[in-house]
Amino acid sequence: MTTDPTSEGFRSMNDAHRVLVLNSGSSSVKYQLLDMRDRSRLATGLVERIGESSSRLVHTPLKGGEPRERTGRIADHEEALKAAAGELAADGLGLDSPELAAIGHRVVHGGLKFSEPTVITDEVLEEIERLVPVAPLHNPANITGIRTAQALRPDLPQVAVFDTAFHTTMPEYAARYAIDVRTADAHRIRRYGFHGTSHAYVSRRTAELLGRPVADVNVIVLHLGNGASASAVAGGRCVETSMGLTPLEGLVMGTRSGDIDPAVTFHLKRVAGMSTDEIDVLLNKRSGLVGLCGDNDMREIRRRVDEGDERATLAFDVYIHRLKKYIGAYAAVLGRVDAVTFTAGVGENSAPVREAALAGLEGFGLAVDADRNAVRSGEPRLISPDDARVAVAVVPTDEELEIAGQTFDLVHN
Ligand code: ADP
What we know:
binds adenosine-5'-diphosphate, 2 domains, 16 helices, 6-stranded mixed beta sheet, 8-stranded mixed beta sheet, Nucleotidyltransferase, domain 5
């Protein structure tokens, strides 16, 4: 080993090349440590049920070593992050390491101001705080995560990567609700969209899969996880997405209704006597697939469909019908579609959902090859026939890698 600090060997040994990605929820913290030289994972972990007596930390070192689990009360985010830092240190990957280049934070709501990943300053943090009224469930937890990480490593760049950023390119006519402009502006009511990090990553990977420049490709991305959203991406820019002011709008999801007539909420209040909070819980937690059939896991729903269960079949049909409507709408928005790409838990794994979503859309140039669709794989792949006018792809999403990449690019250049 050389000790000459001017030599390449020394520099590459000492360059900070790791990024810690933090995703702080209200009662959980997920983390991943990545080595940006080869974009590999060094460790992943999850602290859940923070603040309860049954808190749990699961830490998985990915370069040798078994997953480790710890249970027992973890009082708050600070304790959670310290516990995670302790696990990383035990693997020789401590946060005090000079190899750590930055911490990248997933921040759900960046409003209109943040269209790019942003180094977190006091002003940036204040702006994220100003957005709490439009993201009351998410931004406070993200802020707590940032403050805690700052306290642990005040000298290190901390970067916010916003779930809304990719959608800030939507034209004004797509982002506006047709309601009184003054009221909308006074309360920052407009369509922001979410899952942007995933839509950005997956649309770019789709262009790579097709072997074409991003700027030449129009893609409809269907991010179908427990939360679900669609986006229309023209030449790498998002022009339309299905989530709105909040993640409640759009597709049928695991527990969220997606689109409904807003008058349903007045009806629930006036006729059913429900409070605003009760309606919020109904539409976010007790609707969607779970509301329709009692299950939100697509594997279980498919099992029930195969057994002839009527409620599960209806839930599946409602889910697919909504998806089809969005595919058709986004084909119209884009004018020309080069690819439809499925991603996230359901999109990556459920061949029946992919098949059903595109069934009958041959007129749009869309078709699925049954054998290709049946293949299980963690790799990006095409599932359309060779002669298809529009490519149909499955591209596993990787939000942590995208956050790490954006964070590293920002602090490294
Ligand atoms: P989240 O929105 O929580 O990040 P994911 O993208 O991890 O969600 O997706 C979780 C969902 O993926 C589960 O609720 C389940 O419905 C679905 N899923 C996972 N594996 C399969 C599978 N093999 N077949 C069908 N659906 C699956």
